[in-house]
Automatic annotation (TrEMBL), chain B:
The keyword Oxidoreductase does not apply. It comes from Nothobranchius furzeri. This is Centromere protein L. It comes from the Eukaryota. Pfam families: CENP-L. Belongs to the CENP-L/IML3 family. Residues 92-139 are annotated as: Disordered. InterPro entries: CENP-L.
């Protein structure tokens, strides 16, 4: 991984690149690289460039949080790259003096921003940068490694520079950037409910053997793919539900008379939860039609839910940044 | 045939029911009426008519025998089962069955656990309806009772096929065992997560010779290290083993005292006063073991069925092989099955009034592709409210003795939690496996790892685990 990035970076001569032996322990490689960089007279600026390239190639580390911009103003659609860059840098520098900002446009229309934060008195800390990914003309922003103290600053700069009026938490987070991007921007194969469920070609049933459950199984599969997508689905790794509903059981009077909610938290985790849910629904472990709590993951593109009695279908907690 | 039983006088000729038609079976004897005769009796009484039927239905002897067994299993009084005469077909087939006994015993473990899991708890009784399934469960129980008959006739240890987890259990009061057990030992027991195994009874184990055992074990470890078996703590380190008796954990009168084994490393260049580093610790215990079983053992055997270890895996296997060589015992992994995990859920939730459990966390694994893990965390006080509401209901119905918890309450509690889950997600948790439970009092995993975080409930947890270990005894 590092080798490929070094080649792409193109600031080291081929001879220097070959002299780095990647089979040695990590600290040896680090020492070698530091000496080479000193030879070439490279500064922090170049190193941050290298880090950014590396992160763009391998974004699946840490946790990405997604946000959605709301209420676009009239000229929001005409924001293009240069304007956005200037505006963002100006706004952020107004709010915080010592920041180091690097903006780069990737081939797939994504704008990557690397921010190293300092405070009023200290220089930017390049060891803990925040990464922001934004797709221009879309309302979605993905952020990694942002502390809650600095969050209002970033949110304000983003909102102003993209000509929107508000930004909210999209309640979707995960380690794989591409997965949450695909989920939010609906880049997966969707299955729409149809009245005519049977395909044109008939299945060949061998002779007198009749599958009794064929119809039930087909309908389960259909409902599963409507709720959780067909084919390859974005690789979401976890979903969290905070339940604050009352315990209801007609045979248990004590619990029914209880006023407080029965608080519990349910977390689903798997290497690909959407595929697991799809399998659950088609196998019958999840009763079909699939409950809106589970199908909202795909349809609404979120994986953090707070369920209360008043609005049982995915009532959400929004965290709005004040302007 | 070495043994012949008078055939049924009523003339069906195929079964061995009442020798005389006037004899009524005693109420405790579960022998059913001969079905061939019953059918003809009903015909005589005009209840059913055989008009249109060619002949009375032929019931083969096997089915007859299986129906007799089914009645046996329905009776809760198992001592009567042993007192009842074994059906003659079992005895006459003993000759041929004994040859196959070896083959059957190896299936015993799986069958026993299946039967146990099917017997435990309300709503999970042996399936009594449904064609093929019915046949299968009967044939299993047929083989099991056969083994117990055989072993009781041959004078082996009395029928342990009737062993199962207690269906009633005393609710734990928090026991302050800090007076009984030394605080160092307690701190050690509470600190680690233990991997559990069961141990068969030890032969000629003397609690008075612990020091010599310690010396022998350190010599054994050193010898194995010399041979090159990987004990990779350090080239120059040597091991110091100590055996100690832990008083206070052997609660019942028959329980042998708990033994704690600790392995410290002693670096070669250490000074006199340098503290030794603990690299491995383990214990053998028997906590409230079943007195019948303990009494049934021959004289020289000590029963310490529960073994817990924490530390490097190679040291664990060395210690186990030393025990196996010196005391002729065998070790095996102790998995905590879902019934025991459910018991722990109930017992720990019950303690919420005395010690706050904070929250009840359960981990289920659903068998889909890719496997889905569901972590269900319930707020401690809410879980306790649900538990106590179920307790009140059952007390109203049955008049249970105060301080006892029955398996029905445990099952109802788990069912309540699962229903709340199902109401929201419509996902059936029973389709998966319960693999871990934890509260602030401790955590238990189905692969046999246990951690008791609060010393007050140590005895209760160890009692449950000792029971599980005793169930897995090979004899």
């Amino acid at each position: 991984m590092l080798k490929a990035t070094l080649e792409k970076w193109d600031r080291l001569t081929p001879h220097q690149r070959q002299s780095v032996d990647f089979t040695l322990p990590k600290w040896v490689i680090t020492q070698t690289l530091v000496t080479i960089c000193e030879e070439n007279g490279l500064t922090m600026k170049h190193i941050t460039e290298l880090e950014m390239m590396h992160v763009i190639e391998n974004p699946n580390q840490g946790t990405w949080y997604s946000f959605q911009l709301l209420d676009p103003e009239d000229d929001a659609h005409s924001v293009e790259l240069m304007l956005f860059k200037e505006q963002f840098k100006t706004h952020l520098r107004e709010l915080m003096r010592n920041v180091s900002i690097k903006i780069k446009k990737h081939t797939d229309e994504a704008v990557w921003i690397r921010i190293a934060w300092g405070s009023g008195f200290s220089r930017p800390n390049h060891l803990k940068p925040t990464y922001v990914v934004h797709y221009l003309q879309s309302p979605y922003v993905f952020v990694r490694n942002l502390t809650s103290k600095l969050k209002p600053l970033l949110m304000q700069s983003l909102t102003l520079s993209t000509r929107h009026q508000a930004i909210k938490d999209a309640n979707l987070s995960g380690p794989k950037l591409m997965a949450i991007r695909d989920l939010l921007m609906k880049q997966y194969q969707q299955s729409f409910p149809t009245n005519d469920a049977s395909p044109l070609a008939k299945e060949n049933q061998p002779g007198p053997i009749v599958n009794e459950q064929a119809e039930a199984r087909a309908s389960r599969r259909r409902m599963a793919s409507e709720a959780f997508g067909k084919g390859a689905v974005p690789q979401l790794q976890s979903a969290v539900y905070k339940l604050e509903t009352k315990y209801r059981d007609p045979s248990n009077r004590t619990m029914t008379e209880r006023d407080e909610p029965f608080r519990c938290v349910v977390k689903y985790s798997s290497s690909n939860i959407l595929e697991s849910f799809r399998h659950c629904a088609s196998a019958g472990i999840a009763s079909t039609p699939v409950t809106p709590l589970l199908s909202s993951i795909l349809l609404k593109g979120r994986n953090y839910f707070v369920i209360t009695d008043n609005a049982p279908a995915a009532a959400s907690q929004t965290r709005q940044a004040d302007l | 045939m070495a043994y012949s039983q008078p055939k049924c006088v009523r003339g069906c000729g195929m079964c061995f029911s009442f020798p005389s038609p006037d004899q009524k079976p005693p109420p405790s004897c579960p022998r059913p009426l001969c079905p061939r005769v019953y059918h003809s009796v009903l015909e005589e009484d005009g209840i059913i008519s055989s008009f249109g039927k060619a002949s009375t239905p032929f019931r083969p002897p096997l089915l007859q025998f299986l129906r007799w067994l089914r009645c046996c299993w329905l009776l809760p009084v198992f001592s009567d089962f042993q007192k009842c005469l074994a059906p003659p077909s079992a005895v006459q087939e003993t000759g041929s069955e004994q040859i196959q006994n070896g083959r059957r015993t190896e299936r015993k473990h799986g069958l026993e656990s299946e039967r146990r899991s099917s017997q435990d708890g309300v709503g999970r009784g042996t399936p009594l309806s449904g064609g093929v399934e019915k046949r299968m469960s009967k044939s299993r129980s047929y083989r099991l009772s056969l083994r117990s008959c055989v072993s009781s006739r041959l004078g082996l240890t009395p029928g342990w096929t009737t062993r199962r987890l207690n269906s009633k259990r005393k609710a734990p009061k928090s026991q302050n065992i800090t007076n009984q057990v030394s605080p160092d030992h307690l701190a050690l027991l509470v600190k680690h997560e233990w991997q559990l195994s069961y141990v068969s009874p030890l032969y000629h184990f003397r609690h008075t010779q612990l020091k010599s055992y310690a010396r022998q074990l350190s010599a054994f470890i050193a010898a194995e290290k010399q041979q090159g078996l990987a004990v990779e703590v350090g080239i120059q380190d040597s091991f110091k083993v100590s055996f100690s008796g832990v008083q206070g954990l052997a609660v019942a009168d028959d329980d042998p005292e708990t033994v704690l084994i600790q392995v410290h490393t002693k670096p070669v260049f250490a000074q006199q006063d340098d503290p030794l580093k603990l690299v491995w610790s383990g214990w053998l215990t028997c906590c409230n073991g079943s007195p019948e079983y303990l009494h049934s053992l021959p004289k020289d055997f000590t029963c310490l069925p529960l073994f817990g270890s924490s530390g490097a895996q190679n040291l664990t296997s060395l210690v186990k092989s030393w025990f196996q060589k010196n005391f002729d015992c065998s070790f095996g992994p102790l998995e905590i099955n879902h019934t025991s995990l459910e018991w722990l859920v109930a017992l720990w939730t019950n303690c919420n009034t005395e010690t706050n459990i904070q929250n009840l966390k359960m981990l289920w694994t659903l068998p889909v592709e890719p496997p889905l893990q569901v972590t269900y965390v319930v707020e401690g006080n809410d879980a306790w409210d649900l538990w106590s509401s179920l307790q009140q209901r059952s007390e109203g119905d049955g008049g249970e003795e105060a301080g006892w918890i029955g398996i029905e309450e445990v099952t109802a509690f788990m069912q309540g939690l699962k229903n709340h889950f199902y109401r929201h997600f419509r996902l059936e948790l029973s389709a998966g496996n319960l693999s871990q439970v934890s509260t602030s009092l401790g955590s238990a995993k189905c692969n046999g790892k246990i951690k008791v975080s609060n010393s007050r409930y140590m005895i209760t947890t160890l009692t449950l685990l000792t029971e599980c270990a005793l169930l897995k005894m090979p004899v």
